[in-house]
Each structure stands twice: as structure tokens, then as C-alpha cells.
């Protein structure tokens, strides 16, 4: 039996992203394990995000050369330029303003690349795919800062270590977004990203 071919990093435009939205959502579900009733709403949110300014997306995708594989998309990441009127942007701006004042919020969000999602299927974690996705996503961006939110259940999770390794730091911790759910950390850094430390092996 031939071994499955190694997944490859591929950039997607808005149309290619939408064509892969179902397998992308399967990776999201496997990585985040949300209640099933939340997935249709997440599908709609991801569709809407493709209309945001300067949208950019990448997938880690296994070529479709073998029948019976569980899915070709093994990881994905996307983001866009943050602007007033976007839900996440406005919620975080209010929180940063309360925490450090309007100048603090403006520094991080006035010219920010917002990483909306970055996930690798649990079966494919530990091979550097998350690092490759983040690096490709942020490479060459013209914004001044990069910001994102990630689960704040474990400060030493692979995701938190990955983000710290490229210069991101905590802006908000134990943060509850409106609508309920687990606590998040909001992290931010300057662009371009700091080089990865030698020997880094985050997912």
C-alpha cells in the first residue's frame, strides 16, 4: 500500500476558500470540538469573512491521490484587515480601551491584520503545520500589527507557545466574549513576525 502523500501548503483566494468550506469546517470541528448546533453559524461567519478587506487564506492540503482518505484539508488559517464595524474588532477595541485607554487600543488595532482562525486537525498536529500556516499568512502583510484570540485554558498550550515564539504577547487574558463560551486570550505583536527560534516544533 502506498503511503499517503505529505500535505502541502497552498494559498487560496476567496472563491477557492468557499469551495473548500465544508472540509475546512470539519477541521475546525475536530480541533475545537464545538457543540454541533454551532457549526451552521460558524459556516456563515466564515463565508462573511471572505468579504472583509485584504482577506488572505492558506490550507495544508493532502493531494487527492488515494481514495478513502478522511479529507484533503488537514489545516487552515485565514485573516483580514481589521476595521470598525467588524464584531471581533469592535469588542476587542472596547476592552483594550477600558484596559489601557484609547491610545493603547489604537496602537494595536488601527492598522491590524486580524488572524481569524488557525487550526490543524488533531491527527496532523506536531509536524509544524501550524507554524507554516501562521508564517505564510503573515508574510509580506502591510499592516503594522497582528492580533488574534486563542483559548485561555492553558498558557502552555501548543498554540500559546507558537504565538509567543514569533513575538506575540498577551493583551487580554481570561477574556469572555459576548455570547458565552470559554475564556480567551487576545494576543498581539508587530509585523513582520519575529524569527522562529531554532528547534521550535509547535504544531
UniProtKB/TrEMBL annotation:
Q: Which GO molecular-function terms appear in the entry?
A: acyltransferase activity
**InterPro entries per the UniProt record, alphabetical:** Acyl_CoA_acyltransferase, GNAT_dom
Q: From what superkingdom does this record's organism come?
A: Bacteria
Q: Which residues form the N-acetyltransferase domain?
A: 111-167
The EC number(s) this enzyme carries = 2.3.1.-
Keyword set for this entry?
Acyltransferase, Transferase
Transferase: present as a keyword of the record? Answer: yes
Q: Which Pfam families match?
A: Acetyltransf_7
What is the protein name given in its UniProt record? Answer: GNAT family N-acetyltransferase
Amino acid at each position: 500500500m502506498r503511503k499517503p502523500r505529505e500535505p502541502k501548503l497552498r494559498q487560496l483566494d476567496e472563491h477557492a476558500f468557499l469551495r473548500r468550506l465544508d472540509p475546512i469546517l470539519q477541521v475546525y470541528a475536530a480541533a475545537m470540538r464545538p457543540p454541533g448546533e454551532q457549526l451552521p453559524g460558524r459556516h456563515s461567519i466564515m463565508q462573511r469573512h471572505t468579504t472583509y478587506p485584504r482577506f488572505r487564506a492558506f490550507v495544508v492540503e493532502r493531494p487527492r491521490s488515494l481514495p478513502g482518505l478522511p479529507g484533503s484539508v488537514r489545516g487552515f488559517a485565514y485573516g483580514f484587515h481589521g476595521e470598525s464595524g467588524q464584531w471581533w474588532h469592535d469588542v476587542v477595541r472596547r476592552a483594550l480601551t477600558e484596559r489601557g485607554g484609547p491610545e493603547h487600543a489604537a496602537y494595536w488595532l488601527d492598522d491590524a491584520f486580524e488572524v481569524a482562525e488557525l487550526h490543524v486537525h488533531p491527527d496532523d498536529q506536531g509536524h509544524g503545520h501550524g507554524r507554516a500556516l501562521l508564517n505564510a499568512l503573515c508574510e509580506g502583510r502591510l499592516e503594522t500589527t497582528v492580533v488574534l484570540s486563542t483559548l485561555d485554558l492553558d498558557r502552555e498550550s501548543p498554540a500559546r507557545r507558537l504565538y509567543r515564539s514569533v513575538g506575540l504577547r498577551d493583551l487580554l487574558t481570561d477574556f469572555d466574549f459576548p455570547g458565552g463560551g470559554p475564556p480567551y486570550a487576545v494576543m498581539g505583536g508587530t509585523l513582520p513576525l519575529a524569527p522562529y527560534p531554532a528547534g521550535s516544533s509547535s504544531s
